[in-house]
Amino acid sequence: MDKQQNQIKRAKLQALQDQYTAELSHRIAAIQNSWGSVFSQDAYDKLNELHQLAHSLNGSAGSFGYIRLSQAAQDLEYALVSCLEVGALLDHLHSIAGAGPDVERPVEMARLPAKIVTENPLLYVIEDDPLLAEEIATQLGAYGWGVQVFNNATKAREALHQQLPAAMIADVVLPEGMLAGAGRLQPFQSLAEQGIPLILTSVRWDWEVRLAAARAGADAYLVKPLDFTILTDVLDKLICRNNYKPYRVLIVEDRREMAEHYAEVLRIAGMEVWVVTEPSLLLDALATFKPELVLMDLYMPECSGIEAARVIRQDASYLAIPIVYLSTESARQHQLAALQIGADDFLEKPITDAYLVSAVTLRVTRFRSLASMIRQDSMTGLLNHISFKLQLEAEFARSQRAASPLTFAMIDIDHFKQVNDHYGHLIGDQVIKSMAKLLRKRLRRSDMIGRYGGEEFAVVMPDTSLDTGCAVLDQLREQFSSIRQVSDQKTFTCTFSAGVATALPGTSGTMAMLIQQADAALYEAKNRGRNQVCHAG
Known about the structure:
By secondary structure, this protein is of the alpha/beta class.
């Protein structure tokens, strides 16, 4: 499906070029006609006569001591020569325009990884030990992964014809023989071309087996007994490489054909693009589309790119959005002057398609990294306390306007101090990460999750009733208690308590009251013996 869509996009890109080619002769003719009107009624003969006079003055003035006059006459002569040569240059312009593009457009564009992970990601596990296979399925299932187990590589290869997984996990030593896993997995190297990670496991850590794993195309190698916290971390990193959100780019360009060209190039690369050809529509586009980069022409008839950048930077919420100018302006001092207004970079036209994709990708990636550092908790990747409160405030206001229920939950890991005291703070961090990972995997994308502080978490569930919210939290509680934590090959489990409150439409409650009610319910759950969910009211 993705291949078919890309073919459609490339065809549209080619159609834009064909349209430009068809209109090119009319553009050249318009230039020629305009030049012809300049030199009507013997103007060309007068221009030639003026050139002869300037040439004579240039040759004579210097001889009589008028050095500066001679130089000025020479400048005039050269300018008139250029004018006289315009006709020849126009003929040359016409001939090369009819010859077609100098460089063929590459069929394959630079592009981002293809998204293959669905709402219910599926993992293939090749493991001949049935008990271990069941344990892998149980532990990964707690985080929301769907797991299909095979006891040999042949059956897994057959399953690939029916459905592609998000990742494959395989034992290097299978019933086929020592290191058979790596050897039998050679055919799976083609998965890398489709962006599907391969994780190999083994009881061995020596060079021979590691080399065999590398030759099999493994993206990661883990030693048994498996630490499922590490395994889920590896899966998150590898799957996240594919499960990206498309970059959002806003193009501000007054010439429609150029704007559509840039847009199609970036769309083929997997990005979402919004085109604005009238700067007056820019603010609406920013508010609606929420771009991660603004690609803007420097010179536009209605207003300049510099003026448009000033308007964007007037709003504090848009201060961090990268603004990149696209222009034929090559004078460095003019570029620097434009950048001083608040833009981030300057790309000179003409620009190749591949370079455009690379330049945009680099800048949006950096924007996302900086934004995540500001908004996210460094350990868990969840919203930090401040960012979560801001999101809660916005969602609370939205629920009041939409007259829809909003459920809020406070979560606290039980006896967490004892975990730190008994197993150490590194293992305590591991427990916090597993809690964060469970919440991310099992809750909806529309739900907001934050690390409220220490071992405490908070969750916002829009359009959710109190009963539904409590049921969801209770299911999460059971799943968390089944996750096996590992410390020096010893295993243990943890539980959590939760307090839930709901803001109903039409009530006079405030956001502060909602937080207070959920916090009180959490304390009630703790007082009742922990490992349970209580609700307000």
